[in-house]
Write a sequence for this structure.
């Protein structure tokens, strides 16, 4: 069975400091991993994905995520947080074994607050 | 259109009534998803359409929920005999095909069942 865990409901960080939003996953086959962001009163937007290749993936708005197979983790990171990064972040996974397995499993979301 | 369009943006209904939620995906996108977002519950998968394949209905919470996709484009999610626990934001997303993994989400329909 596939699942995603985001252990922190909230993350608070000061502007300019590095941020990390944690995600762990469980999937039967090879994981396809994603991060989406939801700004207030807006739809979810794609940030980045890991399918294969380099474990460090770079995405939009200066975000990056590191795939760690042994720890089954895909933590989202940014070296220097901005107030405008404050939003709800979702990690998602799907089983990469077959094209028919299109269902994406999302975590419960982590509310990131960056204060000035 | 330029993005995924959902209507209505807000729907207030009385318990026991039926509702229909509409999703217009990005033109040419073959895959379409419905998710439900409840406070503190994250995104709950409901149903997935891919081209002409049989939809994956495994996430529909009860037989009161159904969805169809006409002509491979517009999709309608129907909830019959609504209950208060159906109150949530219903999100639609589309994807261009199996060669890309990026989902494009609509702004959602906020459903309130009184």
């Amino acid at each position: 069975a596939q699942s995603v865990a985001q252990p922190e409901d909230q993350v608070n960080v000061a502007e300019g400091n590095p941020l990390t939003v944690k995600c762990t996953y469980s999937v039967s086959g090879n994981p396809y991993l994603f991060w989406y962001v939801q700004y207030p009163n807006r739809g979810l937007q794609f940030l980045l994905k890991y399918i294969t290749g380099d474990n460090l993936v770079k995405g939009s708005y200066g975000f990056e995520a590191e795939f760690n197979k042994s720890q089954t983790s895909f933590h989202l990171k940014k070296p220097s947080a901005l107030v405008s990064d404050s939003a709800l972040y979702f990690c998602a996974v799907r089983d990469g074994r077959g094209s028919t397995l299109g269902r994406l499993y999302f975590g419960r979301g982590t509310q990131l607050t960056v204060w000035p | 259109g330029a993005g995924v369009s959902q209507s209505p943006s807000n729907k207030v209904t009385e318990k026991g009534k039926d509702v229909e939620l509409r999703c217009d995906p990005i033109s040419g996108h073959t895959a379409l998803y419905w998710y439900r977002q409840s406070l503190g519950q994250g995104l709950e998968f409901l149903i997935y359409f891919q081209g002409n394949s049989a939809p994956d209905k495994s996430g529909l919470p009860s037989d009161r929920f159904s969805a169809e996709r006409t002509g491979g484009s517009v999709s309608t999610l129907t909830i019959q005999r609504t209950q208060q626990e159906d109150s949530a934001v219903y999100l639609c997303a589309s994807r261009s095909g199996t060669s890309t993994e990026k989902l494009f989400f609509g702004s959602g329909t906020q459903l309130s069942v009184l």
Remarks:
- The longest strand of chain B covers residues 42-50.
- The CA atoms of residues 44 and 60 of chain B lie 9 Å apart.
- Chain B touches chain A at residues 4, 31, 33, 35, 40-43, 45, 48, 50, 53, 56, 58-59, 91, 93, 95, 98, 101-108 (CB under 8 Å).
